[in-house]
Write a structure and sequence with these properties.
alpha/beta; Metallo-beta-lactamase, Chain A; 7-stranded mixed beta sheet; globular; binds fe (ii) ion
Length: 277
């Protein structure tokens, strides 16, 4: 199966005029045969606008995957359902957990999904909750919960379940999408809170495969330490990953470093970026 993957929502825009950026992520996956799948929905300010600008008809999407329950990946779901019709929504059961970013200053900002399960169901969502590795469509898999096995992928230390700053949220609902292609596996990340190496190890365990052709999406390396960064670059080199199309929570400084260390593989996956494989 071949795919076209198009970034619909991201922090930055590419050269396509008339598109808009927002802090968030959404990617449309169009297989050569079968219906398109939407992976994440951004925070809700740009999804429908950018899709229209790129002539992507989201009413053809029957399946939506939510990588995790943060507002910047789930906020576009309600308007998508209202404008483009009912969808099956694949996600982890913890997607509706309360979440906050607590800064060193004590400032606390809510970052949970903004609509309730009831509101989304009333708008046409049918939730398909799973913690397990599962098949979404032929050759398309969702990782399920990713076991944290590496010591250096410590997660984002600013994420909490409440505003006290005591109850760390390790984002257990974080999942990534896997596409089987002739060139190898393509991995689509939301924020990859679980860590890229943990995610790759989990995929190897579940599928027996380490032939990763491309990784596209948010790596969360912008919120990680130097050791995690260095070991992730090593892993990309060792696995022979051909394309690392980083986005969103990768951030400017880390993207600049990835671009320097992986000049052939690294690309900025901004709004309008397309990977055909
Ligand atoms: Fe995010
Ligand atoms: Fe996130």
């Amino acid at each position: 199966m071949n795919y076209r993957i198009t970034i619909l929502c991201e922090n930055s825009v590419g050269p396509l005029s008339g598109t808009l950026g927002e802090h968030g992520f959404s990617a449309l996956i169009e297989p050569t045969a079968g219906d398109p799948i939407l992976f994440d929905t951004g925070q809700g300010l740009t999804l429908l606008h950018n899709a229209r600008r790129m002539n992507k008809d989201l009413s053809r999407v029957k399946q939506v995957v939510l990588s995790h329950g943060h507002y910047d990946h789930t906020g576009g779901l309600k308007s998508l359902l209202e404008v483009c019709g009912a969808k099956d929504v694949y996600c982890h059961p913890s997607v509706f957990n309360s979440r906050y970013r607590v800064k060193d200053t004590g400032e606390c900002n809510p970052i949970s999904i903004t609509a309730s399960r009831e509101e989304l169901e009333a708008s046409g969502a049918t939730f398909r909750f799973s913690r397990e590795f599962c098949t979404i469509a032929p050759g398309i898999y969702l990782t399920g919960e990713v076991p944290r096995v590496t010591e250096f992928e410590t997660g984002d230390q600013g994420l909490y379940c409440d505003c006290t700053g005591q109850d760390l949220d390790n984002t257990p609902d974080d999942q990534s999408l896997i596409l089987e292609t002739e060139k190898g596996l393509v991995l689509v990340l939301g924020c990859c809170h679980a860590g890229l190496i943990n995610t790759l190890e989990h995929i190897a365990y579940m599928t027996g495969r380490r032939d990763i052709y491309a990784v596209i999406g948010g790596t969360h390396l912008g919120f990680s330490g130097q050791e995690q960064m260095a070991k992730t670059v090593d892993a990309v080199k060792k696995l022979g990953i051909s394309k690392l199309a980083a986005s969103h929570c990768t951030g400017f400084a880390v993207s600049a470093r990835l671009s320097r260390e992986l000049p052939k593989e690294f690309q900025m996956a901004m709004v309008g970026y397309t990977l055909e494989v």
